[in-house]
Structure formats: C-alpha cells, structure tokens
Amino acid sequence: MSKRDYYEVLGVAKGADDKDIKKAYKRLAMKFHPDRTQGDKGMEEKFKEVQEAYEVLSDEQKRAAYDRFGHAGVDPNRGGGGFGGGGAGAGDFGDIFGDVFGDIFGGGGRRGQSRAQRGSDLRYNLELNLEEAVKGKSVDIKVPTYVNCDSCDGSGAKKGTSAKGCPTCHGAGQVTMRQGFFAVQQTCPTCNGRGKIIPEPCTKCHGEGRVEKTKTLSVKIPAGVDTGDRIRLTGEGEAGMHGAPAGDLYVQVNVKAHPIFQRDGNNLYCDVPLSFATAALGGEIAVPTLDGRIKLKIPAETQTEKMFRLRGKGVQSVRGGGVGDLVCKVVIETPVNLSDKQKELLRQLEESMGGEGEAKHRPKSKGFFDGVKKFFDDLTG
User: Fold this and answer.
1) Cα torsion angle, 218, 224, 226, 229, sign
2) Which tens digit of pLDDT belongs to each residue from 24-48?
3) Would you call 204 exposed, middle or buried from its count of C-beta atoms within 10 A (0-12, 13-18, 19+)?
4) What is the second-level CATH architecture of the domain 122-163+198-255?
5) pLDDT for 281-304, tens place per residue?
6) Whole-structure pTM value
7) With respect to CATH, is domain 6-87 assigned 1.10.1740.10?
C-alpha cells in the first residue's frame, strides 16, 4: 500500500515552517493518541502515520531528502536515513513526544524536575466615588488569601526536618509510562512533580507550606483612575505551595454613579437648570465643579440644551496629559405652581409675541409650522 504524502498527513503546505509543522503534529497526535482512542486500531494507525510524517518533516536533512526524492529518499529499505534509521527510532520516541507534549502532560520531557507552581493571582473589587477617583487616596483593604506558613517558613516540613528526594522519580519530578511501542512522560504521582516528598509534614499547614489568612493592605489609589482601571500589587496574591512564589493582587476599580456629574474620559458633563427669564434676558448662574461653585455667564436669548465648556475643570487622567473640561448643558425649566397673576402675565407675554411679530420672537417655531403647512399642502395637491 502506497504511503500518503507527509505534508498531506499533517495538513500543512510544502513551504510550512517548523512552527506550523510542530503545531499541526501536536493537534493531530492528541486527536489520535491511543490514550484517547481506547484501542481503536484505525486511529492507532493514523497516530503512527502522523508520528512518521512529523519525524521526517521536523528533521532538516530528512525533509530535504524527502522534498527531493519523496518517500524513496527517507525509506531505510532504499538506503536513506528514514523512519527508524539514522534519526530517532522507536526507542527514542519518548524524547520527541516529551518535547512536543510537555506542557500537556505536566513536564518538559527529560528536562528535569518540575518547577514549583507559583501562587494564584487574586482580584479585589474596589468601589470609589467620583471625588475619590479624581483626587486619589489611600485605602485599607482586607483580602482573604494564603500566606507562607510561619511555622515551617513555607517548606511544608515539620520544624527540624526537611524534604527528601522522591523514591518514585528519584528527584526528576516525572515518570515514564510505556504502552508497547510508545513511551510517555507524565508528572510523578508520588511527589506531584516536585521531585521531593515530605516525610514529616508541618502540623500547622499540613505539609502545604501555606495557611489561610486575611491580610490588611494599604493601597494608594492614584488621582484620575476610572472604572475598569487595575492596580497591580506584585506578590500580594496567594502564596505558592511549599515555598513557591506568591501571585499578584489586582485591585479592580469601579467608580460609582455621581448625582451631578457624568464622566467621559477626562471630561465631566452636567445638566444645569435655567429659568425661562434668565434664558431670555441673560444673567449669571452658579454652577458646580469638583473644586466648588463658579459663576457662569448666560447670554441673552440662550436656547435649551446649549453647551458651555469650562476649560480645565474636568479630570487629570491617571495616564498623564492635560486636564479635561467641564461641559455644562443648560436645560430651560418650565415654571410650575403658578398663581393666577403669574398665569395672566404669561398670557399677556404670549399675546405680545404673536401675530406679525411671531417670526421675530420665535424664529424656530415660526419656521417649523411654516414647514408643516407646506408639507400638508404638498400632500393634498
């Protein structure tokens, strides 16, 4: 039976680089590995085919011979340096497999014992009001976590004793599991990859080298932080087991909604109510800022929703740059709870602005209704 093209077997182009070839091999070998296919002979043959293709295409000399002469260039029966010939044969499969699958099966082939696992990172959600976020502050937070055991200094061994070399893996942290032709390196089940065991565990931490504790930390919040910003505290996460380095603590900032201001980047926005008379006649009003009230001059004949920009009254970003602005949108407030006299005065004002002078006093209203009239005139012909 003729062999399939090795590039076709791995599903890569002929010009694929080493990285793509290794990636393709890793994916297919995991798919067809006997541990996953539960004795399926067809899948086992595919696994062998994938392994054979990878061994040739991952070797620079063999690949060059294959590209030039095809299977004849790497077939040991024809004098080439083929599969099982001058390269890694069946007995060396563990080296190849360990190199590609080390990260999945808990190690790096024959690279020595596993490194101690770093402690987990932690996240703390911190809620601030707008003023605190803009100006910055120091806060104390309480974080439940794991810390190094003070009784054994994180080693996990009872005081006066120490860890010993693992009798199963002899300090390598890994053992070789053989299935007929294949050899797979896995994390040692006795020491879990550490290469050491603890004959007499610490009574306080029960051999883990760490204990639970609620830490109180002082966190300096820089001025200008906003929702979504994170503050990283290196080494303040969970302590690793058996003296391994601690993870980090990430303080996640959330800024509460403010009753007056809305923040967008470095700018602040607020709605400012404006009386009908001030809008028409002009004047000065007091508007709020984060530094206190300031006067805002309102020109006569101001329309509702007009924006006024107050330069430099916004936020200084935590990332630097200039200070943002405060943008005030005036909203003309319709008077309520009018007395009879006030209602009469408004009727007189309304009458005085009607008739031929309407376009002068209310140009938008006049233009709108003229447009409506034209629209219906056009509809009716």
Assistant:
1) negative
2) 888 888 788 776 766 778 888 888 8
3) middle
4) Sandwich (2.60)
5) 999 999 999 999 999 999 999 999
6) 0.59
7) no
